[in-house]
Amino acid sequence: MKIINASYILTCNDEFEISKDKAICFDEKIIDIDNIEVLNVKYPDAEIINLPKNSVLMPGLINPHVHLEFSANKSSLTYGDFIAWLNSVIVKRDDLLLACTDEIIEEQLKIMQKSGTTSIGAISSFGKDFEACLNSPQRVVFFAEVLGSRPDAVDILFNDFLSRLRAAQDHQSERLIPAISIHSPYSTHPILARNALDIARKYNYVVSTHFMESVAERNWLDKGDGDFNNFFSNFAPNSKPMSNADDYIKLFKGCKTLFTHCVQATPKEIKEIEDEGGSITHCPVSNRLLGTGKLNIRNINNLTIGTDGLSSNISLNLWDELRAVILTHEKQDINSLAKKSLLAVTKNGANALNLNCGEIKKDTLADFIVCELPEDVYCEEDIPLELILHTKTTHSTYIGGRKL
Ligand SMILES: [Zn+2]
User: Fold this and answer.
1) Per-residue pLDDT tens over the stretch 239-257
2) Which helix (H) or strand (E) segment is 95 a member of?
3) Which fold has domain 2-60+359-403?
4) Distance (Å, rounded) from C-alpha 303 to C-alpha 322?
5) Alpha carbon of 345 to those of 60, 178, 349, 370, 380: distances in Å?
C-alpha cells in the first residue's frame, strides 16, 4: 500500500473537480483520497511518495483507436485526399507491414507509456501487433478486425478473423481484453459484420468501426456515387454499396461500439449512435492529413480522442493529439475545450472501452499519471489547458498501482 501526495489532483469526474494538496492511498486500486495528514493516520504502514512542486496527478490517458501495424510508416503515404491516400496504402501496404517489426511496435508502445497512455484500443487487421501487445504493461483492448467485401471469400476471411480473435481469447487477462473491429461500411461485407457482431454480443465484447470518415464515403453510401465509385470500378465494374448508413448503424444494436471519425456523419446519426450507448472517436490529425474535414464535436457527449495509426499521423503521443484538438476547434472556448478533451482521453475513453479506470475515484484501478507544470499557474482553472500545452512526457506513470 502506498500514499502519493500531489500539488493538484485532476479527478476527471463529470464536475471536473480539481483538488489542491490532496493525496491518494492505493494498491492495485485507489483505496482512499484525502489530506496527507488524515491518510497518514489511517494507513500508518503505507509507503509515502512525495512529488515535486506543481505536480498534477490525473488518470492515465486512454487512446481507444490506434493501428500499431502501420508503425513503420514515416513518409511512404500521400496526404491531402482520402482516396489518394487509400490508393497509396494499397500500393505500399505489403512493404510497410514487412518493415513493421516487433521492435518498431514496442518502441511506439514505449513512447505511449512515457507520455502517460495507460490503456489503448489496438485495431489489429493482421495480428502482427499481437505479441507486442501481449508483452506490454499497458491495458490493451485488442480489436481483431474483420474486413473484405468479396462474397466468394467470406468464409476464408471470417476464419482468418476467428483465428486472430482466438489468439486474444486464449490470452485474455486484466491487461489483454479481446474485442472486435468491423473495418467500415464500404469495406466489410454485411455477412461478415453480422457474424462478427453476433460473437461480440455473445461475449459482451466492445466493438469498433470506422464510420463516415470522408465525403467519398458519404456519397458512396447515400448514392452509390462519387470518388468511391471510380475507386471500386477498378476492382469490379458496376459495384454497389453493401449497405446504407442507417442500416449499417442498426447492425451494431446491442453492442457497445466506438464509431471512429464520423466527420461526415449527420447529427441524427450521431444521436442514434449515442442513444445506443456508443461513443465517437475523434482523430483530428488523421482527418486533417487525409483532407476529410472537421468533426463538429460541440454536441457530442460520448467523445473520445484517438491518434489513429502512423499511417495517418506523425505521433502516437496523445498530448500531441490533444494540442491538435485545441488548435482545430478554434471557435470553441479554449478552457472549456481543454477540460472536455481531458475528459475524452480519461473518463470517456474508459467508459467506451469498458475499463474500470479513467477517474481518480475510490475502487477504480490505480492507473494514473503524474505530470509537472513548469511554473505556478495564474489560477487553478488554467491547469487543464496548461497541461495540454506543456506536457510531452510524464513525471511518472502507474498501471494497476505499479510504477512503470
Ligand atoms: Zn483507424
Assistant:
1) 899 999 999 999 999 999 9
2) helix 82-99
3) Urease, subunit C; domain 1 (2.30.40)
4) 13
5) 8, 21, 5, 15, 20
Single-letter amino acid code for the residue at 309? G
Tell me how far the alpha carbon of residue 366 lies from the centroid of ligand 1, in angstroms: 28
CA of 355 to the centre of ligand 1 (A): 21
pLDDT at 384: 98
Residues 164 and 3: their CA atoms lie apart, in Å, by 41
Residue 65 Cα to ligand 1 middle (Å): 6
Residues 197-221 have pLDDT tens digits of 999 999 999 999 999 999 999 999 9
What does the pLDDT read at residue 30?
Answer: 98
- Amino acid 12 reads C
Q: Can you spell out the DSSP letters for 28-95?
A: SBEEEEE-HHHHHHH-TTSEEEE--TTEEEEEPEEEEEE-GGGTT-SSSS--SSHHHHHHHHHHHHHH
* Predicted pLDDT at 238: 84
276-287: pLDDT as tens digits: 999 999 999 999
Q: Report pLDDT digits (tens) over 129-142.
A: 999 999 999 999 99
CATH superfamily of 61-353: Metal-dependent hydrolases (3.20.20.140)
Q: What angle do CA 305, 116, 98 make, to 5 degrees?
A: 75
Amino acid at 53: K
Distance CA 81, CA 215 (A): 10
Name the catalytic one among 69, 213, 321, 372.
Answer: 213
Q: Of 334, 306, 331, 330, whose CA–CA distance to 320 is shortest?
A: 306
Is the pLDDT at 76 greater than 90? The verdict is yes
Residues near ion ligand 1 (CB < 5 Å) are 308
Residue 321 among the catalytic residues: no
**Is the per-residue pLDDT at 236 higher than 90?**
no
> What's the pLDDT at 234?
85
Residues of the chain with CATH 3.20.20.140: 61-353
Q: How far is the centre of ligand 1, averaged over its atoms, from the C-alpha of 209 (Å)?
A: 8
User: Residue 260 Cα, ligand 1 centroid: separation in angstroms?
Assistant: 7
Q: How far apart are CA 82 and CA 336, in angstroms?
A: 31
What pLDDT, in 10s, does the model give residues 86-104? Answer: 999 999 999 999 999 999 9
Hey, how many other C-beta atoms are within 10 angstroms of the C-beta on 250?
Answer: 12
Q: Boundaries of CATH 2.30.40.10 in the chain?
A: 2-60+359-403
Bridge partner list, 304: 281
